[in-house]
Design brief:
This protein has 98 residues and is α+β, with helices and mostly antiparallel strands. It is 46% helix and 21% strand. The protein is built from three helices and four strands. Helix 2 runs antiparallel to helix 3. The longest helix has 18 residues.
Amino acid sequence: MMQKLKQDEIDISLESLDKWKLEGNVLTKEFGFKGFRTAIEFINLLSLVAEKIDHHPDWSNSYNRVIIHLTTHQANGLTKKDFIFAKEADKFAEQLRR
């Protein structure tokens, strides 16, 4: 099981992310894309990351928007995996917006 991060570790890790918000024990961000197909492509790319790192987000999609909520349920809070996933999400979103 992953070790739950302490608040100072969360604060430092959050500084390295682009526009992610901390809501309780959950990292959240809304991504916007050109259209539905790009939003679904984003989800498909991230599903591979989720499987690779064995960390599965809560997310929703509405047309060109994808909202991601990250937390590690087993740790009852945030772990390194949440921040790894968030960075990958930012990377793929940037690639798809080009």
